[in-house]
């Protein structure tokens, strides 16, 4: 067996697969997952179809809207599922008093984490695969390209990976499954929803003097929702939510020849002063981040990189906390004393 | 084979182990005796490389527990005092899983699992779910698990705790079989009679300190400063008691079942003097025999010193 396969197939993965798929919970979770996604898709479609009958003139982009709601909803479901899959990974072994039995084997502690991660991520991937048939229906309506689907799934998987690693880190650190579960959900909600909520509460203030288009606050790139919306809309995400212009002193500013700016639908901005003169129009196009620390990056690229960084940090924390006897590298290099 | 040199383990302010040293040669069965909380589990966990000693050194077969944990893990089979099993796995799969964790190749694992199930008598339960096993059977399964990589040393922490007498006897038979297979075994317990029969060596630990260590009979002798003789006399027992009472060496006298039990301080010559004192006064002694206090008593004596 090659070392690559050995790395991916450690005994823990096999054991986790066995015990996970033998419970009634897994097929139930899979069924509920598919039903929820299919249900939302159907509800969206029927409501759009009904609305469209009333105004038969315009033909909205069915496929695009449907796709946007489905990928975001899928991300929400993954956010709800992943912590439950990993928050018990290490702590349940501690609670069941099986972890010492693993520590005394030749499986290094890192492989325990790796095995647990691989097993839970496989389940997430399985869920994503289950949703593929539903997503393929979206293609019937058109308006969505294959690369949009692939990028969306990439963002979702990487986010699931980060959430899974956060769950494992809490599971290693907190020792009690209940505490680890609560902490993992808090972490997951903070990462996925909290960052967006933060962006909505503290949006980017449009600077009238700026010559570059405004970008959403960088912290919102942490949330996979932002790139998913950007990919589906094929444009700037959540304009008017993450980018806003608050009239500095209310209408006083306008009365006193202040400048008023407003974001454009494509992520740009237009400013005008109360004297009637129209200021510069700066527009942002496409799904690239127009300014800020990740300027010119695609939203999904920024999110994937940030999520991977968070995941890597969580992985390192777990790997540091898990071993029963912490052997720091500089201590390991001490020459071994030959004993009699 | 197994060496502990001045092992010390401090948890915060509590000293769990205080300069514990002992040595177990190859092929011996070392009984590790002490009351609950004496430091047995701490010592075994240090030897299993699951705990780092605060000071001192521990090694198994030349491998240092803090510096070469990988070598330690391939040499030892460890059975903790408390352990759990996974749900949704059968007995066969459970052993196979640990076999894989010890990097045994698949074809070998099939044979190992079969042999081990035969050894611990679980062959018919191969396809039963592990979490449905009784405590005694789980204990046996855990012992089998500790053997999947054919270790040279077995560290068994209270393998008989919580077992009914029958299961305990069965466990003892398995351990005897392992001794025949040439394993060096360290077994901790607070149940003494089973250790006297099984062990070749013994260590008595209390409050983190090793009270005595060595071959079983030596430890008993070492600890029995007070010895006992049972004296049966023909005729006037009271007179014999009256003669014995003033003797300096005699500590305590008991009359039960028509015999006198005298506890005295000293060695064999003291015993001879006691006998002589009786016969010199014309007491007709029909039986005079030394009573072996046994491990239980030695243990109680060794561990009661610090209790006050």
List key phrases describing it.
heterodimer, A: mainly alpha, 2 domains, 13 helices, disordered C terminus, B: alpha/beta, Rossmann fold, 6-stranded mixed β-sheet, 30% strand
Can you give a write-up of this model?
The complex is a heterodimer of chains A (340) and B (308). With 340 residues, chain A is mainly alpha-helical. Chain A folds into two domains: 219 residues, no CATH class; 78 residues, no CATH class. Chain A contains 13 helices and six strands. In chain A, the strands form two sheets. In chain A, strands 4-5-6 form a three-stranded antiparallel beta sheet, with no helix packed on it. Chain A has a two-stranded parallel ribbon with strand order 1-2. In chain A, strand 4 and strand 5 form a beta hairpin. In chain A, helix 4 packs antiparallel against helix 7. The longest helix of chain A is centred in the middle third of the chain and has 33 residues. The two termini of chain A are 37 Å apart. The C terminus of chain A is likely disordered. Chain B has eleven helices and 14 strands. Chain B folds into two domains: 216 residues, Rossmann fold (3-Layer(aba) Sandwich); 68 residues, Alpha-Beta Plaits (2-Layer Sandwich). The longest helix of chain B has 16 residues. Chain B has 308 residues and is α/β, with parallel strands linked by helices. The model of chain B has no long low-confidence stretch (mean pLDDT 85). Classes of the chains: A mainly alpha (340), B alpha/beta (308). Chains A and B meet through helix 2 and helix 6 of A and strand 5, helix 2 and helix 3 of B.
